[in-house]
Design a protein that fits this description.
Elements lengths: L2 H4 L2 H7 L9 H7 L2 H4 L5 E4 L7 H6 L4 E5 L2 H8 L9 E3 L11 E6 L10 H14 E12 L12 E7 L2 E8 L4 E9 L5 E9 L3 H10 L3 E6 L13 E7 L4
Parallel strand pairs: 1-2, 1-4, 2-3, 4-5
Antiparallel strand pairs: 5-11, 6-7, 7-8, 8-9, 10-11
Helix pairs in contact: 2-6
Length: about 240
Amino acid sequence: MRQDEIWDADTAQRYDTPGVGMFSPDVLGPTLVLAALADGGRVLEFAVGTGRVAVPLAALGVPVTGVELSRAMLARLREKADEATVPVVVGDMATATAPGRFTLVYLVYNTISNLLTQAEQVECFRNAARHLSPGGRFVVELGVPDLRVLPPGQAGLVFHSEPGYFGMDTYDTVRQHLVSHHVTFGDTRQARLARSPHRYIWPAELDLMGQLAGFELESRHADWTGGEFTGESRSHVSVYRLPPH
């Protein structure tokens, strides 16, 4: 499935869960450290979606622009913020161009993995670099592949299970692809299945992508609160920076 087919109107409607899930204050609040990383300058969010992060940042007085491929997701954002508050360029985060220069570009919640080839992911880094002023930062939030717990000969892993929901990832380790399957159900025999394809990236590979685009790794933490990144961390927030001159 193409990304614009996945992020349709139905998905955009279900994506927003105000006050709970990834919209809950304990998840969203720490993300707003991005305001400090912007260092008083303009900010660009790749794959801005429905504005989960951009709208609160704009409310803090940070000038935020977005890039978004899905018009359905953008329509949902427009219910919260107009074009003057959060201007958005419709296009792919690996190629779209927003006007002006920025001190910060960011890409959160595993979204770089929606680009399904290594070449596209490298182009995403290069696109970030093209938008940044000297010394600017590119921030990527990304999960660490769970391959250590994938038994030999088994292609899938349940990553979450609770009443009414379970999630499972199936892996193609040759292409570094996975498909996330989300199954929701009630008391009947009926269930809803949603799927999304990804290309997973090891932290070291991500760093090399940064180097190819002219970045240096400035910091890496396990989460937005600054927790130490270790071999047991399941995700990371990595900050890349361009040379100041």
